[in-house]
Design brief:
alpha/beta; five-stranded mixed beta sheet; elongated; three-stranded antiparallel beta sheet; 8 strands; 9 helices
Length: 275
């Protein structure tokens, strides 16, 4: 299969993976001993006699793709290439492409940010889900929450403020009633826009974030089911804060996102399917 110029050789990919998983020295994923013997493409621990490979104790264990194809599908996902375009590029089935995109999303690290100074907040609704989203003005810092219902009440909004917004923050929203008395339950300096009077200056950034999120989901995944919506929102929102650091996007993402959990030995981590 034709390999794009931005995809490195298999040797370089293995080197990146090895450095990200083990660091400078190979160690046993069970006993952490560095008394490891290397033979061909496998390793054996002298202390506990465990036999393992580069990916055997990660959630990429059992991967059927070549390293270059893995790197290519990761590049497609990280660069928001739509599912159909990825299928055409890699000659994979839709099931396979969606499986890998799901796997990448499920292993994103959790980002828990406390917003401060000036924060805009808004909500959006789908058939049986609701989204609360807040953004620190002038930054890429986001906080979000998915509710398993098609409405948001004041209790939900106040709980979100308590969890994600620092006290004494300048808090900007639209004129919805769920925000009216929020400052009585959490120490905030609240200002609001009246959209019926064409006031949008206080909520322009958060409205734009919802627009970008909708465009991202439609363009990359074509549609969203209620079950997948939390994953798609997390995918979009998790990528946004670190976009400014991606001078070399795929390498940075390998180190900061995907390989965040690769070196952690856990029997319960999801394994790759033979697709």
């Amino acid at each position: 299969m034709y390999i794009l110029k931005q995809i490195p050789s298999e040797a370089k990919i293995k080197k990146q993976l090895r450095k990200a998983i083990f660091g400078k020295n190979i160690f046993c994923p069970v006993c952490r001993s560095q008394r490891v013997i290397c033979y061909e493409s496998r390793y054996r621990c002298r202390k506990c006699r465990l036999k393992f490979s580069l990916l055997s104790h990660t959630w990429l264990s059992g991967m059927k793709l070549s390293f270059q194809n893995f790197y290519l599908i990761l590049w497609c996902w990280q660069n928001k290439v739509p599912v159909m375009q990825t299928m055409n590029l890699m000659h994979l089935s839709e099931k396979a492409v969606r499986h890998w995109f799901d796997l990448f999303r499920s292993n994103l690290p959790d980002l828990s940010l406390i917003l401060e100074k000036k924060v805009q907040m808004d909500e959006a609704y789908s058939k049986d889900r609701s989204i609360l989203l807040a953004k620190q003005i002038g930054t890429r810092n986001l906080a979000w929450e998915i509710l398993l219902k098609n409405s948001v009440d004041q209790h939900d909004a106040v709980n979100f403020m308590i969890q994600y917004i620092k006290p004494r923050t300048r808090f900007q929203t639209d004129g919805a009633m769920i925000y009216k008395n929020g400052k009585k339950y959490w120490m905030l300096r609240h200002k609001s826009d009246n959209h019926s009077k064409w006031e949008f200056s206080l909520t322009s950034e958060i409205e734009g974030m919802f627009g970008n999120m909708r465009t991202f989901i439609r363009r990359m995944y074509h549609h969203s089911t209620p079950e997948k919506l939390p994953e798609y929102v997390r995918n979009s929102a998790s990528d946004f804060p670190y976009r400014k650091y991606l001078k070399h996007p795929i390498v940075t993402w390998l180190k900061r996102y995907l390989l965040y959990q690769l070196g952690r030995y856990a029997l319960g981590t999801p394994r790759c399917q033979a697709l």
